[in-house]
Write a structure and sequence with these properties.
This protein is an alpha+beta fold. It has one domain: Nuclear Transport Factor 2, Chain: A (Roll), CATH 3.10.450.50. It contains four helices and six strands. The protein has a six-stranded mixed sheet. Strand 3 and strand 4 form a beta hairpin. The protein is globular.
Length: 137
């Protein structure tokens, strides 16, 4: 049982570090060869590999949303290798606001996040595109 709780704590710490914009703390929670999978056809969509690429992506998401992007994890399900959370998220940019939920699934290896997949729902696709566009931030 201790390993399960530590995985949940790891994911909670990851979200807390992102909220503080503490990129050193975020980096310490990820493996060097992390694989990060964002769905859809947005500018940020696709698979991102390696610590530097993932950190660039996370920072860019904050930048293009003018610092408004926030995530709040709620419920957790944990197995010996994975932790999943439902996260409520909001962001705005240029007077457009978008919000939704996502199921985030994290694979844990060596007490750090090794891989992540995201499954969003409950959002306005046009608002999402406007807020998270990498063009003209």
């Amino acid at each position: 049982m201790i390993i399960f709780m530590s995985h949940q704590d790891l994911v909670r710490d990851f979200y807390a570090a992102r909220a503080r914009r503490d990129w050193d703390a975020v980096a310490a929670l990820l493996v060097g060869d992390i694989a990060w999978h964002e769905p859809g056809a947005e500018d940020y969509s696709g698979s991102h590999h390696g610590l530097d690429a993932v950190l660039r992506l996370l920072k860019r998401l904050v930048e293009v949303t003018e610092g408004t992007f926030s995530l709040e994890p709620t419920d957790f399900i944990t197995t010996s290798e994975h932790t999943a959370t439902n996260a409520r998220w909001t962001a705005s940019r240029g007077g457009v606001r978008v919000e939704g939920n996502e199921l985030a699934v994290f694979r844990i290896a060596d007490a750090r996040i090794a891989e992540a997949w995201f499954h969003p729902d409950g959002y306005d696709p046009e608002a999402l595109s406007a807020v998270f566009s990498f063009k003209n931030p």
